[in-house]
Write a structure and sequence with these properties.
This protein has 385 residues and is of the alpha+beta class. It folds into three domains: 110 residues, Orthogonal Bundle (Butyryl-Coa Dehydrogenase, subunit A, domain 1), CATH 1.10.540; 114 residues, Butyryl-CoA Dehydrogenase, subunit A, domain 2; 145 residues, Butyryl-CoA Dehydrogenase, subunit A, domain 3, CATH 1.20.140.10. The chain has 13 helices and ten strands. The strands form three sheets. It has a four-stranded mixed beta sheet. It has a four-stranded antiparallel beta sheet with strand order 2-3-7-6, with no helix packed on it. A two-stranded antiparallel ribbon has the order 9-10. A hairpin with a 2-residue loop joins strand 9 and strand 10. Helix 10 runs antiparallel to helix 11 and helix 11 runs antiparallel to helix 13. The structure holds flavin-adenine dinucleotide. Flavin-adenine dinucleotide binds next to strand 1, strand 3 and helix 13.
Length: 385
């Protein structure tokens, strides 16, 4: 079944919820660089952000494909799931590697909406894409880890209660593999801010609530270590595949929004005494973007199916993310071109979505890193780094 038809009830319900948050809502927030608190509250209240939490802990226990349907619909409606998608993609790390005690402590509260897990801290200024070179350290001191270092582009930290944080617990050179010696800590931001953690917002091209983090002797209880010490990279890998698939679904939603918007405008806008969409020069790029999107959507579906079946999904997750982000960008560019001057006018929402969808070729993983992963892992070409 194509992604389009999967989870139709969820799609219809999410579309209905999103109809209450139209273009004027997102435009206003974009202009003021505000977090969509009301939207996130409505999604949480309707249970969509706890969709992946097992029923035993108060969630809906649905597969990743259902979470994809939610995020795709948000983007297809003209909104943006960036404000809240992390709660879905970090769930794999907590579910698969968290202890029973940790799950009982946090998941029911997250499911009922009294606790927000919206932040995921990996990227650092000095290491960038090369995660194994992160320099934020956590040193054991009694029942605590003491964290020092810096992170950059960590989103939603001002709108989350918890953060999944990747740190080094032993130096890179002293670890067997370069990806060994890292660990995952669950940081309670409510305790941390002002007690060893300071946050500085970063103004970006789109409204994304991203921040810079400074750790100075922050104490995190050892009880908040997720998985085994030194095995943190493995713990977040599962989450990274889920993240790529979920972001790819957002891209499909964007691409479908842009293409519907292009086709609608091309049918109605009359110049030279006929609809502009009657010209093949206008209709062909729209048709091409549509074809590109539907092909990418099949790969997103395939990746989600593999992930939900517990089978290796790394290659498909990466390919889905690359294809979907490029389809969204092609659809976005076509949409601006189809709208002519109006593509640049804020009230059409095209320029806002255009800026928003550009992110996905860079974050959460940039296109070059996907290409290098596929070249190396799937095609057995030598590693370039
Ligand atoms: C709005 C926003 C929100 C974000 N949110 C988060 C978040 O919540 N949590 C988080 O941890 N991170 C987050 N990020 C960070 C994001 O994941 C990184 O920006 C991204 O992974 C790239 O890292 P970098 O910016 O350091 O680029 P760099 O690593 O400096 O790379 C720069 C460019 O060089 C290319 N490049 C680097 N090395 C190679 C190579 N060996 N071969 C070929 N090309 C190469 C890259 O592909 C890229 O195009 C966010 C970023 C943005 C912009």
């Amino acid at each position: 079944m194509a992604l389009e038809q999967s989870f139709p009830d969820i799609r219809a319900a999410v579309a209905k919820l999103c109809a209450g948050f139209g273009g004027d809502y997102w435009r206003r927030l974009d202009g003021n660089r505000q977090y969509p608190t009301e939207f996130v509250r409505a999604l949480t209240g309707a249970g969509y952000l706890s969709i992946l939490i097992p029923e035993a802990y108060g969630g809906s226990g649905l597969p990743l494909g259902a979470a994809c349907a939610v995020l795709e619909e948000i983007h297809r409606s003209g909104g943006n799931g960036g404000a809240c998608h992390a709660q879905m993609y970090v769930m794999g790390t907590l579910l698969r590697h968290g202890s029973e005690q940790q799950k009982r402590r946090y998941l029911p509260a997250i499911a009922e909406g009294s606790l927000r897990l919206q932040a995921f801290g990996v990227t650092e200024p000095g290491s960038g894409t090369d995660t194994s070179r992160i320099r934020t350290t956590a040193v054991r001191d009694g029942d605590d880890y003491v964290v020092n270092g810096q992170k950059v582009f960590i989103s939603r930290t001002e709108h989350s209660d918890l953060m999944v944080l990747l740190v080094r617990t032993s130096p890179r050179d002293e670890s067997g593999k370069h990806t060994d010696g890292m660990s995952v800590l669950l940081v309670d931001l409510r305790d941390a801010i002002g007690n060893g953690l300071s946050i500085k917002p970063i103004d970006t091209m789109m409204n994304h609530a991203t921040t810079e983090l400074f750790f100075d002797e922050l104490r995190v209880p050892v009880a908040n270590l997720i998985g085994a010490e030194g095995q943190g990279f493995r713990c977040i890998l599962d989450g990274m595949n889920a993240e790529r698939i979920l972001i790819a679904a957002e891209c499909i939603g964007d691409a479908r929004w842009f293409t519907a918007k292009s086709a609608g405008y091309a049918r109605e806008r009359e110049v030279f005494g006929r609809p502009i969409g009657q010209n093949q020069g206008v209709q062909f790029p729209i048709a091409r973007a549509h074809i590109q999107t539907e092909a990418a959507a099949l790969m997103v579906q395939e990746a989600a199916n593999l992930y939900d079946a517990g089978r290796p999904a790394g290659a498909q997750a990466n390919m889905a993310k690359l294809l979907a982000s490029e389809a969204a960008w092609a659809a976005a560019d076509t949409c601006v071109q189809t709208h002519g001057g109006y593509g640049f006018a804020a009230e059409y929402d095209v320029e806002r979505k255009f800026r928003e969808t550009r992110l996905y070729q860079v974050a959460p993983v940039s296109t070059n890193l996907i290409l290098s992963f596929i070249a190396n892992q799937e095609l057995d070409l030598p590693r370039s780094f």
